């Protein structure tokens, strides 16, 4: 195409920017907490060239990595650069798009067949002093955390055999090990999954492969203290459909979901599969944990179907966004059983981008945060992001009760005005164990026709309703992020 399509994926807040910038000495309004000293990294899809096909969408955009650094002198610096993937470099050399439909290499130009086509645009992952930009359709790219220079595709020193690595890893707070997986591990539409454990030193020490019930979009997973949990939802791939030039994903509303459970240091032959409801889907999990009786609880932002219209509509599922039903939902299983069905409990409202303190990963937890839509909003929401509208309500949830109607502490909320939206926040721990720490998030607000205000907000995580304690205005046009990561300054200095 000679120009970007005039669809929701390429207009308004989603309009491509494609500019690398570096800004220093940005003023901080308010009082910056002492603990918020470090860098907030974000993965931002942003296509360098108009796509080959008009029905392309946000998540095909080239990966950009941004860094917002909070300095010792009370100022902030901002920088953003393209991740120079093999795909980005091939199209830059040609001066136009050469890769076709989302995750379908059969629609690429002939001269780029076989080129690594991942755009590394989903999550910045920090572990063992390395920054990786990850997207689940390929291996990650390593990034210099200070300069944002691309250092190349990363396979853990030649050890990783899987062709893919998830963008959603889990890090154990006690052992500092990194747990991840790769689905479609040996190629398109494959049901093979690679389950991997990386030591605190960054060395890949275990890679085991197993067969999922079917080839599914496995966007996220969880660990508990003793188990690894693999959710399977019926957004599926088919090789013949891909060869015919079709879409990578279709959602199957009448197909069962599954939850695979195995000892996290065990053998994949020990996986037990528990059946869930038909047709449901979740992109993001809040946590998994074991109770005193040995039951395993898995908390996810669950929807009645796939949240993305670009997946639903080719599948023949035509719904308005508000017709998609959802809730923060708990699946409970006995991990020592041979299988069975999940027990399902609604524990929170609809929404997404759940966040917990890193210290509570895989452990019982009493609070968390998530984004949702404000049902009392007096005006239009901000249009943008892959779903088409940005979340405009930040919630703190008390998880100590099984029902939101019986919570010991009422949920706290921070609402935005019309035409404003939150990006996914990151959590920054406080030095005082009694304090819940801080949330850092980018807030976008439309202030005119194709005019936007972009600010970083620092929020007291235990008192979100009070609003931001500090703000930084970023004087550059930004596109919505997918995910982010917080890295303390001490860890950056050590790296």
TrEMBL record:
Domain of life: Bacteria
Keyword vocabulary terms for this entry: Dioxygenase, Iron, Metal-binding, Oxidoreductase
Cofactor: Fe(2+)
Species of origin: Novosphingobium sediminis
Cofactor binding note: Binds 1 Fe(2+) ion per subunit.
Family: Belongs to the carotenoid oxygenase family.
Listed GO MF terms: carotenoid dioxygenase activity; metal ion binding
Name the UniProt record assigns to this protein: Dioxygenase
Cited InterPro entries: Carotenoid_Oase
Documented EC number(s): 1.13.11.-
Chain residues that bind Fe cation: 168, 219, 284, 483
């Amino acid at each position: 195409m000679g120009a970007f399509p005039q669809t929701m994926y390429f207009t308004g807040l989603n309009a491509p920017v494609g500019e690398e910038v570096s800004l220093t000495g940005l003023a901080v309004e308010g009082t910056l907490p002492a603990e918020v000293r470090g860098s907030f990294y974000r993965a931002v899809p942003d296509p360098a060239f108009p796509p080959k096909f008009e029905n392309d969408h946000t998540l095909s955009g080239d990966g950009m990595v941004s860094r917002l650094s909070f300095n010792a002198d009370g100022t902030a610096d901002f920088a953003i650069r393209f991740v120079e993937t093999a795909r980005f470099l091939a199209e830059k050399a040609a001066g136009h798009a050469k890769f076709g439909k989302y995750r379908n290499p059969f629609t690429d130009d002939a001269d780029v067949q076989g080129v690594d086509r991942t755009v590394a645009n989903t999550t910045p992952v920090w572990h063992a002093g390395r920054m990786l930009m990850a997207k689940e359709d390929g291996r990650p790219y390593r990034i210099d955390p200070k300069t944002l220079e691309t250092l190349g595709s990363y396979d853990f020193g030649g050890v990783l055999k899987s062709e893919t690595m998830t963008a959603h890893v889990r890090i154990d707070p006690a052992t500092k090990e990194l747990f991840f997986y790769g689905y479609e591990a040996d190629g398109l539409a494959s049901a093979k999954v690679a389950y991997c454990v990386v030591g605190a030193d960054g060395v890949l020490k275990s890679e085991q492969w197993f067969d999922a019930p079917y080839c599914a979009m496995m966007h996220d997973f969880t660990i508990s203290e003793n188990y690894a949990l693999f959710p399977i939802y019926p957004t599926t791939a088919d090789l013949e459909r891909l060869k015919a030039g079709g879409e990578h994903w279709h959602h199957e509303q009448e197909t069962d979901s599954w939850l695979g459970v195995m000892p996290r240091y065990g053998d994949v032959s020990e996986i037990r599969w528990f059946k869930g409801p038909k047709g449901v889907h979740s992109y993001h999990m809040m946590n998994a944990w074991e109770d005193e009786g040995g039951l395993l609880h898995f908390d996810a932002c669950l929807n009645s179907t796939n949240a993305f219209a670009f997946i639903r509509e080719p599948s023949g599922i035509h719904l308005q966004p508000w017709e998609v039903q959802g809730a923060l939902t708990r699946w409970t299983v006995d991990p020592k059983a041979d299988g069975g069905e999940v027990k399902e409990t609604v524990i929170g409202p609809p929404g997404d981008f759940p966040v917990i303190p890193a210290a509570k990963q895989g452990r019982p937890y009493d609070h968390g945060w998530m984004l949702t839509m404000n049902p009392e909003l007096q005006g239009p929401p901000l249009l943008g992001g892959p779903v088409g509208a940005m979340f405009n309500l930040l919630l703190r949830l008390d998880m100590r009760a099984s029902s939101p109607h019986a919570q010991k502490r009422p949920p706290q909320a921070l609402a935005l005005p019309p035409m404003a939206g939150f990006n996914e926040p990151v959590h920054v721990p406080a030095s005082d164990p009694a304090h819940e720490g801080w949330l850092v998030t980018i807030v976008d607000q439309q202030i005119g026709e194709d005019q936007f205000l972009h600010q970083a907000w620092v929020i007291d995580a235990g008192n979100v309703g009070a609003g931001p304690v500090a703000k930084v205005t970023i004087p550059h046009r930004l596109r919505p992020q997918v995910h982010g990561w917080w890295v303390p300054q001490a860890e950056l200095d050590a790296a």
